[in-house]
Amino acid sequence: MAARWWWRRALRGLCGAALFLSQLSVLSGRAGSLMTTKLSQPQSTLAKSLTSTSTNAPYFKALESTEIPPYLTNCPSNGLCSRLPPDCMTCNTNYSCVYGKTATFDCKVKPHVHCVDENNHEQENFTINMTCQFCWQLATSDYVCTNSTNCMTVSCPRQRYNATCTVRDHIHCLGNRVFPKMLYCNWTGGYKWSTALALSITLGGFGADRFYLGQWREGLGKLFSFGGLGIWTLIDVLLIGVGYVGPADGSLYI
Q: Which parts of the chain span the membrane according to its record (predicted)?
């Protein structure tokens, strides 16, 4: 009897343990489902935000497309297409044209550019006539270059400097419209050749011509030597007259 009672008590304990484990597994499953739903909510909101921004993307692109291109500031409105600046058109250039001869190129206006023909009819496609030559082969009057105030214009041999040249708006040419070029030093500091020569003839014995040109050491030498007893004065008259002696800063006379 005692053995049967003990086995019954053991079976009851095993059944209670099994029931407890089953309830624990059910509770853990509910907790996991709650966690997954909570974690999925931020992801869903993030997905919504991404989709909302993606739907607004065409709106921003539309705003960007309405911006005015920078080349429009140089493009006259409703003018002749053949007289538009090169920045306002796109041309099919033919580099096999004969150098120095007149060539015809097919061109098209850029977006937002409006121009007309001789009959005042708006057009997009047109032709232009230009001389077959590269931009760096143009005449000096057809481009503008930067100046240098550091090189010496009065030197032997005459110095050159690296300049950046830009073709004028109404000139058409082949190649790059901005190009480097070696130019002679041609800047001036405001000194007049006639004034220097007049001072050399009248007051050269006192070094006035050298003082005017900014050559203080030579001016003091002439002043204290009375123009080298007249010899230095005569030499300076000849040197300034032929332009061999110039301003101390190396510039040209005006």
A: 191-211, 223-245
